[in-house]
Amino acid sequence: MILIELTAAIDSDGTEQKFYFATEGYQSGPTDSPPNVAFDNAIADPGYIGQSAFSDGKTEGASSLEVGEIVILNGDGDFDIWATYSFDGRPLRIRRGQGGAYPTDFEDVFAGTVASVTVTLDKVVVSIREKSAIMDVPVLTTTYAGTNVGPVGLEGTSDDLKGQVKPRVYGRVLNIAPRPANSSKRTFQVSDRAVAAIPKVYDRGVELTPGADYATSALMTAASLTPGSATFVTCLAEGLFRLSDDPDGIITADVDEKSTDEEMMVAPILQRMCGDLALTDADLDDQVFAELNADAPYVAGLWLSDQTTFREAFDMVAGSVGAWHGFDTAGVFQCEQLKEPAATPDFDIIEAEVMNGFEHGVADRDGVPVWRVTVRYRKHWETQTTDLAGSVSTERRAALAEEFRSVTAEDETVKHQFRQAGELVVDTYLTSAVDAQAVANRLLALHKVRRDLCEVPLNAEALDQDAMQVMSTGRLTHSRFGLSGGRNLRVLGRRLELGRDSIRLKMWG
Prior knowledge:
Layout: E1 2-9, E2 16-22, E3 26-27, E4 38-39, E5 43-45, E6 48-52, E7 64-67, E8 70-73, E9 91-96, E10 107-119, E11 123-129, E12 147-149, E13 152-157, E14 168-176, E15 179-182, E16 187-189, E17 197-203, E18 206-207, E19 209-213, H1 217-222, E20 231-235, E21 240-243, E22 251-256, H2 266-276, H3 286-295, E23 301-304, H4 310-319, E24 323-327, E25 333-337, E26 347-349, E27 359-362, E28 370-377, H5 394-401, E29 405-410, H6 414-417, E30 422-427, H7 433-447, E31 452-459, E32 473-476, E33 487-497, E34 502-508
Parallel strand pairs: 19-20, 26-32, 28-30
Antiparallel strand pairs: 1-2, 1-9, 3-4, 5-8, 6-7, 6-33, 8-11, 9-10, 10-11, 12-13, 14-22, 14-23, 15-16, 16-21, 17-18, 17-22, 20-21, 24-25, 27-31, 28-29, 31-34, 32-33, 33-34
Helix pairs in contact: 2-3, 2-4
């Protein structure tokens, strides 16, 4: 049985009302929530829910969640009034079960919002917006007002910064080129919030001498700096620094958002980004971040100064350690590294349970393994090939000319069997060579062997679906494709056909 909750605003005051539907007759009990409600069995098609850790045939990038339209019968005009209601952006929840107390005895299948409701003579079509749509908005929304008057203000002027977004630092970033929040006071902003340290500032590549940190921008602005001293002072609480002298050329800086490496690792950065996305405790699972932190305890950094969306920012950070990210069907944020299938499976599938439509294919690069992995790391956010002072060392000139440094992991023996074995190049936002090498080694071990990708259709009611979650491991036994002895495969995707009692797994390994 499929049960659906919809919420609508039914008048101009925004008064909300909930509507309850089921694929068969059901009424909640007196102690349920809500109590004593008869669920309307007018559902013609409850749609489908599909979740993938990565896009088709891929083993890297963001997750995707597909949702099919819900169709409700309206032949008698019972829901004509819905044409005057507002469902858009309001909650929608789908549950599944065999009966019992509501909602505790029913499994959460999907939590999201309604995109639109279309009412026709014979049906109502409910279009669904899956939760990850909230990530398609810019991270940065605060802009410079352009209200500076000479040395007064930190909002730029109408001729320089007005309307531009204020930047933000996550983690550790190197050689960023911040904008002058007040040119006449030689004051630059690295982040729209507090940072822990601005350890280095450079003018044309020459390191300046750090001075005092001031509690407020007003105190920093009022401070008397010695001309010609080639120094800078900071207001870390407001993400600012100020120079003692007019710049000779481009000004760059290194910045630490937090005071410890542990706080600037991938998982904590993702947690802070989730907070900036206004996700609540109900949207998050601390265990997810704890496990990622144990798998990838690596320092990373992101500097945003444009209209980068949350989805893009999450891609950059999570992708640095080969992790997927997104929301599960219950609306809880997930982030996990792709790993080899586990030695002990979470569930078993035998051939007799596989329905028509079983497919076998290959993943990534037409199934051809890689023999070398190159991981690029330690990003210079501002590369510099010209306008460097004569005193800048040859070594630093070479470093500043490159956006990334790189490390490699390779195994030439892969080419003994696979003559077309390729190379994988991954851009990361990691800052340490040791961490980047660990990522390269892990990715080589994962991708230097041939991988199969199976599409496995199953009868949903005959199996324990709770075990069949994305990134779980299942043992598949089948007479074809070398699976007769059984093989452990990792679930990269699942699609639940709510009206057909079937589930299709995408299994890799």
